[in-house]
Amino acid sequence: MTPRKLAKDELTKDAIIDVARDLFVTEGYRSTSMRKIAQTLKCSHGAIYYHFKNKAELFYEIVEADFKKLDQELDDVMADMASSNDEKIFAVLYGFIKFGLTHQKHYEVMFLIRDEELQCQVQDKPNNSYEKFAQTIASLSAKQLSPNEIWSLFISMHGFVSHYCRSDIKFDDVKNLASSHARFLIKAIK
């Protein structure tokens, strides 16, 4: 009988998710296999299958968790009763940029990985997240915004984040630019 592993050495879902996310971003979805994830974790691929039935389930769980995290950011802004609507709009725009640059690998999995096999399965997550963003901005804005104006806000923030993804730039390096960008976008919708 082999001795039981120490708790610190046990393979957890979180450890698998962290390694898989990195591999999905650096290697691509198709090139990442359960065996490759297991090799990186120095465990058997059977240990991965104990937690996830296949690579697609693992990927979907990552996407689901990452969008929940982003949605929670919106919920936190909306729950702040001490802030004005204008302050909340700034917090939403600035917070989106901060999230994307603080969690670059999460962001890439959420918005930037393109694979035909995944498109129909995960497309609802970004769409649902965008809808939540659009409804939040529309509810906070003093002026009635058109769908095109809200989409332009989102695309502008997405472009800012995408520009710095996969770089050595961290959020702290561009937080003043992020603040200026969010304020510029607010002026555009007033």
Automatic annotation (TrEMBL):
Keywords: Coiled coil, DNA-binding, Repressor. Pfam families: TetR_N. Residues 10-70 form the HTH tetR-type domain. Residues 33-52 bind DNA. Residues 60-87 form a coiled coil. InterPro entries: Homeodomain-like_sf (IPR009057), HTH-type_Tx_Regulator (IPR050624), HTH_TetR (IPR001647). SUPFAM superfamilies: Homeodomain-like. PROSITE patterns: HTH_TETR_2. This is TetR/AcrR family transcriptional regulator. It comes from Cytobacillus citreus. The lineage of its organism: Bacteria, Bacillati, Bacillota, Bacilli, Bacillales.
